[in-house]
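REQUEST ID: PR-0412
SUBMITTED BY: lab tech R.K.
PRIORITY: routine
TASK: structure prediction, single protein chain
INPUT:
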Amino acid sequence: MVAPAITLLKKGYVDSDAVKALMQFLKKSGAKGVFIAGTTGNAPMLSLNDHKEVIKQYIKYAKDEHLTTFAGIGRDSIEETIDMGKYSIELGADKLVAVTPYYLKKDKKQMYEYYSELLKKLDSEVFIYNIPSLTGNNIEAETVAKLAKENSNLKGIKSTNTDFDQFQKLIYYTDKDFLVFQGYDHLLLPSLELGASGGVCGTMNFTDLSEKLYESYNRNESAKSIKLHKQLSNIYHILEPYEFPAVYNAMFYKLIEGIEIKSEPELFGNIGKSEVDSILKKLNRLP
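STATUS: complete
OUTPUT:
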């Protein structure tokens, strides 16, 4: 299980104490890795300099806890993405994660060419990140399989996609050592049933339910897995109406750090004490 880390800032700078606490919580929860500067980390809104600083600081604290680091390198241009990849490699990132191009539509041929160039220029293990609901672009399973066959450094994909037909194809069209991760918390259990390698679940920033679900599934504890799935799904859907990723940051600060949400810390959105209190009431009523 890999946690898509929230980005924790204070007065415009990385909140080092909070990042350290997050990494310690993830290690204790059973996470094996941390995905830095992804969607949950608000990466598309970070400046180039802030993106670099987040990568740098998070790798440092993740390594202190012996967590495998997945550095999110996606930028608007392929040149900046490649530069971010090389920068992350220099910092010691274990793996790189490149989101699909976004905003402008790309066809199958363009998507193949984009990743072919990235993979040839990055001397590291690379993962594709597919989240078509936000990028407006979808990379098809056939394209992923072709890229994996031609590039030995393409090691897997994070698929944040409700299309289970495509998810199943990602597993069946690639070799058994190619890792396919589910990005939606509420789809983790059915994805494991299809053969997923694990999940990259946002709620891992403040609860260990997804790690427990993964472990119980691998122990063939069906009843427990279903119970945990229902709990995880309920939490996901309770948070869904609130501004993202602000609500995940707020839950971390409240539940893990014990901090009341006021003007600080920075949450990347409008969520305050009343919203947090409402969420907690709903969570406390869950079975």
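NOTES: The chain is about 50% helix and 15% strand.
REVIEWED BY: pending
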